[in-house]
Amino acid sequence: MTATATSARSDLTELGRSETALRAFLHGLPGVDQVGAEQRAAQLGTRSIKTTAKAQAIDLAIRMVDLTTLEGADTPGKVRALAAKALRPDPADPTCPHVGAVCVYPAMVPHVAEVLRGSAVHLASVATAFPSGQAPLEVRLADTRAAVAAGADEIDMVINRGAFLAGRYAEVHDEIVAVKEACGDAHLKVILETGELATYDNVRRASWLAMLAGGDFIKTSTGKVPVAATLPVTLVMLEAVRDFRAATGRQVGVKPAGGIKTTKDAIKYLVMVDETVGADWLDPDWFRFGASSLLNDLLMQRTKLTTGVYPGPDYFTLD
Amino acid sequence: MSERVAVRKTYKLFIGGKFPRSESGRSYLVQSTNVSLASRKDARDAVVAARAAVKGWAGATAYNRGQILYRVAEMLEGRREQFVALGVPGDEVDAAVDRWVWYAGWADKLPQVYGGANPVAGPYFNLSAPEPTGVVAVVAPEAPALLGLVGVIAPAIVTGNTVVVAASPTQPLAAVTLAEVLATSDLPGGVVNILTGRIAETAPTLAAHLDVNALDLTGVADAELAAELEVRAAENLKRVLRPAPADHDWTADPGLTRMTRLLETKTVWHPKGV
Amino acid sequence: MTFEYAPAPESRSVVDLRPSYGLFVDGEFVDPAGGGSFTSVNPASEEVLAEVAEAGAQDVDRAVRAARTAYEKVWGPMPGRDRAKYLFRIARIIQERSRELAVLESLDNGKPIRESRDVDLPLVAAHFFYYAGWADKLPYAGFGPDPKPLGVAAQVIPWNFPLLMLAWKIAPALATGNTVVLKPAETTPLTALLFAEICQQAELPAGVVNIVTGAGDTGRALVEHPGVDKVAFTGSTEVGRAIARSVAGTRKKVTLELGGKAANIVYDDAPIDQAVEGIVNGIFFNQGHVCCAGSRLLVQENVADEVLESLKRRMARLRVGDPLDKNTDVGAINSAAQLARIRELADAGSAEGAQRWSPPCELPERGFWFAPTIFTGVTQAHRIAREEIFGPVLSVLTFRTPAEAVEKANNTPYGLSAGIWTDKGSRILWTADRLRAGVVWANTFNKFDPTSPFGGYKESGYGREGGRHGLEGYLDV
Fold first, then answer.
1. Rounded to 5 degrees, what angle do the CA atoms A288, A294, A298 make?
2. Is the residue at A313 inside a domain?
3. Segments of chain B with pLDDT less than 50
4. Spans of chain C below 50 pLDDT
5. Under an 8 Å CB criterion, which residues of B touch C?
C-alpha cells in the first residue's frame, strides 16, 4: 500500500468529485524509476519454466486468452469461426481448455453470441469509439449500451488520452464512471493505451484513475498504436492493482494486449503475475491476454509437451 | 642615548587559528630562541582543531579555497624580509610564494583533471569526483625550512583537507612565522595546525590517532621510525605517504601525486530514464 | 492457483574438473615443494570438487622469481600494443568459455547460476576488454608522459566473486606491464585454476601470471615476500590492517579493498517499488557476500511501515536453494566458517533486542544455508548495525530528517558504498555530497562496470579498482 493511499483510504471514493483532489492524489503516488522497472521486468523474464510448470502455464495462458479480431474486414463468418475456436481451441484434444473470451467490434457481437451461448467463454466487445475514443460521450455511451444489449458481458473501453495528457483527470474519471454505468452488469475493462502515455509514472496514474472510477480490469493497449503491451508496463499496472486492493479491498484485473505472440512471452507474463501479485491473480477472472496469434503458438507448445514432437503451423486451425 | 631595547617574539604553537603555548609549559632552545615543545596532548588538541575545521574547509567552494591560497602567497610575499632575517634564503622565499600561487590554481582544476564521467555499459549517469580525505598529519621535512613546509602543507589543504604539521625540529622559526602568515590570510582556524618540538614525541601520537585519515611521513629521515609510524597508521588504515628521499629536490615541479594521494574518489551512479 | 516452478538445473557436464590441481608457476602446473594439499567443496552439497595444492613459502618464492624473470625479460620490455593483444585474447577466450566458467563458479562458490552467468562472467570479460585497451595508451592516462610499471604484483583475492576479483586484479596489472602472483581464496580456487589454463590457451608468456593456492599462510608469505613491488588485496579489514603493517617501511605500493557496512537510505518520496528491489538486490545479491552490500537500511520513519511491508512481501518470493537451478535467487553460504559467523551475529541481533524476520523458506539439508533475514528495531549501538555480517542479513533503522540519515550513514569506521532513494534530484546530490563512501548508488544499487572506479574511504581501504583510476595502483606515480 502506498503512503498516499493509506492516508487517503477514507476518502478515496470522494476523490473523483474534485479535480484538485484527484490531481493531488495521482501526483502523490510514488514515482516509477524507468531503468529499475525495466530491469526488474527483464530479470523476471529470465525465469526458466520447464516441464510440469510449463504445461501448467500453457493451459492457464490458454484460459486467459481474449481471442481477438478487430479488423475492418471482420465478417460474421470470420467471427463465428473464431468463436468456435475459442470453445475448442484444439479439436484433436478434448483436454485442451477453452479460452477466456472472444473480443470483437460491437457489430459482430450478435454473431459471436450465437456461437458462445451457454458456454463459459465470455464475450467481450470493444466500445466507446474504439480505438481512438474520439467521439462525443453520448455516442460512446450508446456504443457501449448497444454492445451489451447485443450480448457482450465484457466491455473494453478506451480512455480519453488527450484529456489525460492535458491533465483533465476529472473528465477522464467521469467518462469512465459513465461508461461503467452504461455497462450495467457487464465487466468493464479500461484500456489505458500505455503506448501513448509516454512514461511509467503516467501508466501508474492512469491505472489508479481507472480503478478509482470503477474499472473492473485495466488493460494496456488497443493494439492499434505502434507500442502495445510490454512487460515493464504490465509490471507497473500489476503493482497498481496490488496497491489498490491493499488500499480499498477491491481486486481489479489486468489485461496486457497486443504484441504477445509466443508461449515464451506469455509465460514471462505469468511469472510476472505470480511474483508481483501472487496466486490471487493467476486466474482468467483476473488476468487476460488480448491476443490472436498467441493461441496457436500455445497450442503448438502444448502438443509438443504432450507428444514430445515439435508440430508445424499446418496442424493448427487458422481462423 | 641608549639603544632601543628590542621586543622579542615568543614562538608558540599554532592550533585552531590561535597561538597557544604548549599545554605542558615546556620549550626548547633552538636557533637561539625558546620555542614551544609540543606534547602528546598538544598533538591531540591539534587533531581536534583540524577535525573541527574539515566541514567548513572541505565544504568551501574550490574557488574560495583557491582565493585563500593565493592570499597566502600575497601575505608571504609581503613578509619576505622577515623570513630572510630568520636565515631563509631569498630565493627560497620566492620559490615558496610561487608554490602557493601554483597550488592555489589547482583548487578548481584538479577535480576536472582527476575526476570525470565514466562511460558505463548501461543507462546510467556515472561520475567520479575527488574529495579530501579529511585530517592529514604531516611530518615536515627538516629542510628547506620554508619551501619544504609549504611543499607539504599546500598540496594537502588545497583540496579541502586540514593538517596537523610537525614542523622541522631544527628550524622551527620559519614554521611559526609561516603560521603568522596563514593566520592573516583568511584561512579558517584549524585548517593548518603547526606543532614545534620533537618528532619522536608528537608523530607517534598523530600516527596512531584514529581521527586522523592520512599520514605524510615526508620529513621522517629515520627509516626505523618511519616504519614504526607506518605500522601505527595501519590501525585505522590511514593513507600513508612514505618519506621523501634525502636528496629530494623541492624546487622541482611537484606533480600531482602529493595532492592525489590525499584524495578519495567518490563515484556516483544514477539511472537515466523518463 | 499456485504456480510451481519445476526444477531447471543448468548442466554440469560443461565442466571438466580434474581430481587434483597443482600450482600454476612459470606457465606450468607444478607440484608444491611441501606436497601439501587441501580440498575445495561445493558449499551447496559439501561434495568434494577437487584437491588443490597448498603453496608454502618455497613455492611462493618460486612463483615470485618466475614473475620477476617474466617481468624483466618478456612482459616489461614488450610493447603495450602486444600486451594488449594478449589481454584481448584472454577476454575472448573468457567469452567463449563463459558457460563453463559460470557453472564452475557456482559449483565452487555456491552463488546462483543466474548471477554467475548474467553478472560475474560478463563483467569478467568486460574488465579484460577494458584494460586491454589501456595497455598501449598509458601515456594518455594522465599520469605523466611515460608511466612505468612497478614490477611484480602480489595479489590476494576473496571468495565472494572469485573470478571477478581475479579480473579486477590481473587485468590492470598486466595492462600496465606488471607480472603477477595471485592467490585465490582457499574455498574458491577452481575458477582461478581454470583461468590458468586460459592463460596457457592464450599462449601468454610463462611467468606473467602465476597462481598459488593456499590459505592465510600462503597469502602472508606472498604479501611479505621481499621480491614483490606491489600488494593488492581484497578481503576483510582485519587482514587488510595486518597487510598494511607488514608492508610498513618497504617500497611496496599497496591497494586495499576491505569491508563495508553500507547504508541504503530510502527517503519518503522514493520510487518505492524500485527501492524495494534495490534493497533486495543490495543485501541478498550473492547471499550478501558483498563488501559493498547495503546491509543497513535507513528508511524515513514516515514510510517505514509501508517499505517494510513491501520488502517482506518481496522477500517471500526469493527462491533459496540449488545454485545451479536457473531460478534460484539466493544460493549457498560459501563455507561452514562463514555460516557460523553469520549465525553468531544474527543471534547477537536477537539477543540485543532487535526483531528478527525471515520468510518461510525450506533450506536444503546438506550444505551451508542461511535464510534471507531482516532485523527491525535496530539501533546504531547494536552489533548488527556496526559489524560486517557478510551474509543475507539486513539491519533496518529509521531516520526523520535528511541530516539524520547522513549522520547515521557516516557513523561507521567503514566507507565503501551507500545508496540513496528519492525522486528529488537536488536531495540526491545533497546527500551524495555528504556521504563518506567511495561508491554512491542513487536510485540503483550494486551496479559495477570496468570503467567505474571502485574502492573505499576510511577503514574500507584505499586505492581504486576500475576505470582510469585503477591504473594508478600499478604505476610508479
1. 95
2. no
3. none
4. none
5. 113-114, 116, 118-122, 124, 126, 128, 133, 213, 223-224, 226-228, 230-231, 233-237, 239-240, 255, 257, 260, 264-271
